[in-house]
Structures are given as C-alpha cells and as structure tokens.
Amino acid sequence: MTARTGALDGVELALLISRVEGVARKMANTLLRTGRSGVLNIARDFSCCIITADDRLLATAESLPIHVLSGPDMMAASVREHHPVLARGDAFLHNSPYHGCSHPADHTLLVPVVDDAGVHRFTVVAKAHQADCGNSEPTTYMGAARDVYHEGALIFPGVRVQKDYRDVEDIIRMCMLRIRVPEQWWGDYLAMLGAARIGERELLALGAEIGWERLDDFTETWFDYSEARMRAALSALPSGRGSWTSTHDAVPGTPEGGVPINVTVEVDAKAERIAVDLTDNMDALPCGLNLSEACARTSAMIGVFNSIDPTVPKNAGAFRRIDIRLKENSVCGVPRHPTSCSVATTNIADRVANSVQAALAEMKDGIGMAETGAILPASIGVVSGFDPEKGEPYVNQLFLAFTGGSAGPHADAWITLGHVGNAGLCYQDSIELDELRQPLLVETRRFLTDSEGAGRTKGGAGMLVEFGPTRGDMAVAFVSDGTYNPAKGVRGGGLGGAAYQAIRRKDGAVEPTPNCAVVTLATGETIISHCCGGGGYGRPEERAPERVARDVREGWVSADRARAVYRVALDGAGAVDAAETARLRGAAG
Questions:
Q1: What is the side-by-side order of every strand in the sheet holding 273-277?
Q2: What is the β-pairing status of strands 273-277 and 322-325?
C-alpha cells in the first residue's frame, strides 16, 4: 500500500472516480467506434478497465462483468511475472485461460502506464471477444473440444506485442496466418491498441495534473470507501448458509445427465463477509465448458453483486469482503493445462452465478434473483462461409436474440439481459446490418408468448429467430444450454422457456439438431432457434392482477396462461374479473 499524502474529502473522491471512470469510458468508446468485426462494433462484446500497479481492479466503466471482476488483475500479475521490467511503449497480448484470461477468444491488450521517472503506475486493459481466434473449427465457442489442442486456439500468455510503440511483427504474422479472416482480426487488434493507448495517454495527463502521490491517495481512499459500502450491504443480509444446484445440459464430453453445478453460500452478517464454495463439483471434463480460474471467481462474484445493493462499487476494495473457494482441476475451479476453457465465459459460468443468486433468494425474500436463461443458442451462433458474390470468406458471431433476464425481488426481468455475465451490456444485432455484412436473410425475429418464468415478478420472455444463407453454404456453430434444463424460478417462481434448435430444409421439413453442433446450411435452408426465458421470483398467484391483465394485452402472456398459472380471470374486454380472480386464487391458496 502506498503511503498517503493526505485525506480526500467526499467531493474530491467523487470527482476523481468520475475522471478515472471517464478514462475507461473513452477506451470503450474507441473500441466501439473503431472495431472492425460485428461482434465489436454492433454487439459490443468487449470491456475496458484500469488496474493498479500492484494488480488491483480500480475502474471498469460499462464493462461486461464476466470480463473484468477477476482476470485483468491476474493477467496484469502474470505480465509482471514474465516481464519484470516494464517500459513506456510496451503492450502485451494475453488470452491464456491458465494465466488469468477468461477464455482464448477474449484477446486482451495490457499496456503499462509508466511515468516520466520510469515508475509503473497503472495498467490499462482492453479486452475484445474475437470473431475467430484460430480454433480448429470456425467458432470461438468450441463446446466439444476435448482439450486445448483439439480446440486449436493460438494462446498468448502475456506476450509482448509492442515495444517502444512498435509492433513485434513476429506475433502479428502468426495471427495473420492462423486466423481465418486476418484483415478483420487486424482491424480489431488496432481498435484494442488504440483504446489502450488512449487510456495510457489520459492517465499520464491526469498524473501530471494532480500528482502521482495524490492519485495513489485517491486509489486507497476509493478502495476503503468501496469496502465500507460492501460491509454495509453484507450486514443487511441474513446470516446463514444456503445451497443451490443448477444443471447444464449434456454436450459431447459430459455425463449423459448433464453437469450439475453445486454452490454453497455462507453469509456472516456480523463479520460483514460472504463466502462462496465451489469445491463440491466434478473434475474438469474433456469438453470446452470448463471454467478458467478468472471466470470461476468472477461468476461467483456476479451472483453476490446481483443479490445486494446495486450501488456498491465493483472493485478490489469491495472484493476484500468476498471469499471464494475453488478446487484445482474442477469444471468450475482452477484448470490445468491442457484443459479446454473455450466456453468459459458463458455456460457453466452462468450456472455458477445463477446458483449463488438463487441460493441467496431462498435464504430470504427480498434478496437474490431467479435463474437467468441459459445461453449460446443458434440465434447468437458463429456464422462462417465463403461469399461467392464478394469472393471472400467471412466469420462473425451474430447477436440476433438472447433474452433470458431473471426476475428480481422487486421488479420484472431486464428482458435482454443476455446472460448473467453479460448483464445486458451487449447489444442485440440490427437485422439490416447483419444482412448487409453476411450473405444471410433473417426470416423471423419475435418474442415468444408464454415463455416467461411466471412469478410475483416475472422472468424475461424467450425469442424465436429463423435465418439462413442467401448465397453459398453457411456453417452455424452454437453450444445451446437450457434445452433440457431451463432457468429455474425461486420462492415458488416458475421455469423460463426452454431453448430449441432445428433446421428447416428446402422442402419445409423441420429436423431438430443437437444442442451443441456446427451445422451447415445450404442456400434455401434456415435454422430455427428459441433462446431461453428467465425464471420467476415468488408465486405467480401473488402477482398483481392488473399487471397480469397488462401482460395479456401486450402479448407476453396468453389469457389461458393468465387463468391457469397466475389465477387471474379476464372479461371479454380484457379487464380483470375481480370476483372470478378472487375465487381462483382462493381455491389455489
């Protein structure tokens, strides 16, 4: 810890955190506006953050939680371990899940901020999900990968990619030769580099303006304030112990019954601490679902933060009050090389976060959340092929539909949450832009009636998407969880709608597909995808009848479901029949 030069008052603290977070926002804005692939400049699947010189998370702006809560700190530490002498002008490429990255598809650039005296002050981090990272199959989510060799991704464990602000061309050539659409990767690399260099420039200017010692003072004060806020939030929880199991659907390499994720949460309100235990889980599996250590830690923290006062800052100060227990070589612990972590940011990670927030919800009404709908349906699959009209290959992850929002104790779901680790920060694709960039046509995109998790507050509805190629064959890769294990509700809440995937052939025949697959569509064929709904919170018959009537008017819920599940009767005009509703709810009670 740096020696302090003097206390900061509340005004100065607020001003400085706003300025530091503003640096991270400038980085993120640069990535959004300059990224070349659609997964960045349309869907916004990237994150930017600032790490202290001793590897503590300081500021994240609007970053995806699964990218930043844990991982950037570990990556920065691994860079310092392998490169003890850092200099201005350095940049490091990192995507190793064994050294702190989330999964190999999340290429990350780390730039040390070094002052005029040669002292390392901060590290700025720009992480961007890649449309292609050199996998043996054309997808960055390879659920069936037996190990990292089968997966095939290029792994960079904190490799220097710039020195004196000049690219290390050897690394660039490796990527350009291995990645399927090299010019697209190159554009995304430059976007990440530009974002990181803007962060470096802004922090150097801030340090010169207010003094590095004062900036160090701010950092420690901010962490202490954040810890105090976290202590207050935890003191409001009920002391006790809760457990939950959330099961991932079976895919190649898993047991036939799927992958149960067991989580135990212990709250000590008096000590103002919370512990999440993930050690009671199976060993790592010969598939791509295994979590990196960064994702195991982060997914547990997401479940905690989803269950407490949302205004608590998410940084290293707040993290001091969270204990996470992991097991080495576990499916949701600390992986050993060459375990594949290809899908680490989403599927099993969501099952961990869901279990934490659901366990807390069952401990006391008014906290926690239901389960969020599972992810990676075909509607957000990775599409690839060769466009005969343009005479060039294409690879991109679509974000056509992923809803899945879980119900909270006081409000209905944020429908387009995406998944727990995304927190609603990725955007749904514009159909028109997807059709311009890839040779495809979206036949249908709409919400599915009666696919919400029913409850006092309801989960988000699922969506139906149908699309296919307009010229040439198209491969669609996906790892669709939730077909057999949809999102659970809590405190009597109902299940969210399940996933579903099928191919519509040219003759109109519909053939269901495996939930984890790379399927090839010919021109005139389409893939049908249902993305999951989210679980409900509280018993459906506790939902206000007027809200149920509005749900029916807006098409979220059918009148039959309103009567059978919510115990609300409507008259011919769609208004609540108070007498019949009272009778239905009396009979249900």
A1: 240-248, 259-268, 273-277, 322-325
A2: parallel
| Residues 323, 327, 332: CA angle, nearest 5 degrees | 90
Nearest partner of 138 among 430, 435, 342, judged by Cα: 342
Contact of 24 with 48, CB cutoff 8 Å = yes
b/e per residue 370-402 (b: at least 16 CB within 10 A): bbbbbbbbbbbbbbbbebeeeeeebbbbbbbbb
3-state secondary structure of 263: strand
Q: Give the H or E element holding residue 109.
A: strand 106-114
Preceding peptide of 469 cis, ω within 30°: no
CB atoms within 10 A of CB 168: 15
Q: Do 478 and 465 touch, CB atoms closer than 8 A?
A: no
pLDDT, tens digit, 9 for 90 and up, residues 361-381: 999 999 999 999 999 999 999
pTM greater than the 0.70 cutoff = yes
Q: Kindly provide the residue ranges of all beta strands, DSSP E only, lying in 289-351, ordered along the sequence.
A: 322-325
Q: How many CB atoms lie within 10 A of CB 417?
A: 24
E strand intervals along 217-369 = 240-248, 259-268, 273-277, 322-325
Q: State both tokens at 533.
A: 């709904």
pLDDT digits (tens, 9 = 90+) for 319-377: 999 999 999 999 999 999 999 999 999 999 999 999 999 999 999 999 999 999 999 99
Three-class SS string for 66-82? Answer: HHHCCCHHHHHHHHHHH
Q: Which of 468, 477, 481 is nearest to 510 (CA)?
A: 468
